[in-house]
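haha ok so turns out i had the wrong file open the whole time. this is the CORRECT one, sorry everyone. sequence first:
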Amino acid sequence: MLEDILECFEREAADVRTYSPLTLAYIGDGVYELIVRTLLVERGNCSVNRLHHMSVRYVSAPAQARMAEALEETFTEEERAVYRRGCHSKPHTMAKNASPRDYLKATGFEAVLGYLYLCGRTDRALSLVREGVGLTGSDL
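then structure:
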């Protein structure tokens, strides 16, 4: 998808290593949400309100923090470095329904997904989410 977007808008890929962890988390949040929404929609047609309530269970800082903790040992060195940068970032806001610790772990997880997406490694991002779903016992 990234290649299609860049080609359509006649853009060149930037050096992902220069992006801040919060920028990586910003795009990673969208990547994760797209994966979750796709899986929920593929279960069958239902109201948008119901889809939203179902997605909140997975796209929340506590849920993402649990997934990050479960996956941490499976991260490559490169992914672990991005994750640590995300966990040590200084966000200007915090989620009201999450502890600061969970919020930063979720930010680290999103940074990894954003990094992988911007590197054109969507297959690895999908693999991590699938593995995280299995490790956390999620019904996604």
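Residues 21-41 form the longest helix (21 residues).
again sry for the mixup
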